[in-house]
Amino acid sequence: VLLVESGGGSVQSGGSLRLSCAASGYTFSRYCMGWFRQAPGKGREGVVSIDSAGRTNAADSVKGRFTISQDNAKNTLYLQMNMLKPEDTAMYYCAVDIGTDYCSDSWFAFAPRGQGSQVIVSS
Fold first, then answer.
1. Contact 84/13 with Cβ under 8 angstroms?
2. Which of 65, 69, 76, 86 is least enclosed by beta carbons within 10 angstroms?
């Protein structure tokens, strides 16, 4: 499994960013995929996921602001982040839970991940 993220950066509060994740080494969209984040000194936090049926699930903290999507022809996963807040500042990781086609509450705990994209939101 190889996951390569891109698209992070620094924005002001209220701004938008889109993260991309190019995936290879497995059958894309067959498993639970998504994004989690980790802020300095904190644990992993699941942000949004999508299962093999296309069902999405977002954390309460990002609902209505973040959207996950995928391009099966390009084997690429996206995270559109709108109305960003300073508390969204974190390293964002793309991950895939190989072995299951649905997303459990802890799908991201041990899932293979990419190198991460830094997102910094200033007030």
1. yes
2. 86
Tokens of 100: 């299951």
Cα–Cα dist 8/18, whole Å: 7
Please state, rounded to an integer, the average pLDDT across all residues of the chain.
95
Q: What is the pLDDT of residues 92-107, one digit of tens each?
A: 999 999 988 899 999 9
As a whole-number percent, the residues of the chain with pLDDT over 90 amount to 89
Q: Does residue 90 or residue 110 have the better pLDDT?
A: 90
Tell me 113's DSSP state.
B
Dist CA 96 CA 49 (whole Å): 9
How far is the CA of 70 from the CAs of 5, 19, 88, 116, in angstroms?
13, 11, 22, 18
